[in-house]
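Record format v2
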Amino acid sequence: MTERTAVSCCERYGRPFAAWDLRLYLDTHPDDCQALAMFAQMYAEQGGDCYAFRGIKMCDWEDGIWHHLDGPWPWEPEANCKVDALYSGKGGR
Amino acid sequence: MWSYEKQLQYPVRIKNTNPRLASAIISQYGGPDGELGASLRYLSQRYSMPFDDAKGALTDIGTEELGHLEMIGSIVHQLTRDLTPEQAKAGGFEAYLVDHTTGVYPQAAAGFPWSAGSMQVKGDPITDLHEDMAAEMKARTTYDNILRISDDPDVNDVIRFLRAREIVHYQRFGELLVRTQDRLNEKNFFAFNPAFDKNKPMKH
């Protein structure tokens, strides 16, 4: 029996779904302290592993502030480094 | 960027082959109100959104819709994976079989392929959020109609989950609309487009 089948279906799907849905709620209620506290509790229940549910960053908040919505967003120039910083541009390809 | 999680958002386990139902449900894969259009609509509308909450919610909901696309593809696959030519003929599946065998192709129940003509990216937050609320309700109605014609409990369990998600997303988009309007001039929400007329003060 693999480790995966040992986990109940509810555990395997339910926990990440609850975290996902609560995060979506926080997108439009970033000031809801009760909801953020619940999210923090879910994070603690996963042993403080920020990526316990791979697609959901669980630690995108600090001191009661929800940071998941903070910019800049990846499509904005401010979020991107200059390629010059990676490639010196001297000779070569 | 995205990374792939090797697990559906909600489990799909279908016992019985049913090509007739598959050819109806495929509408939520590539039909006008389906999950492919939903994800592309939201993920494309993000770029012109001027507010971080809308950028975040469109990213998260657009990502979830890609997961729903995968669930619909899984339903269609499981309804047809053991299909025989005789079952295809009995289930009205001949036309699809000739074009795609039992591959999963983005098309509507009526047979036409997915088209960007079924969605819009208007570049105006109020307009786009209204489109998004309408899109969620169109998908919800489609799921209601699928439940009207389906008597397979394995399928219906998944469809009910997806239907409920449309309602949750509709609610989130409605909240975003209010949050967006709260940042504009309450005497005239339509005085300017906050995604384009950038030098205007948000409020007077």
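The beta strands of chain A are 61-62, 65-66.
The longest strand of chain A covers residues 61-62.
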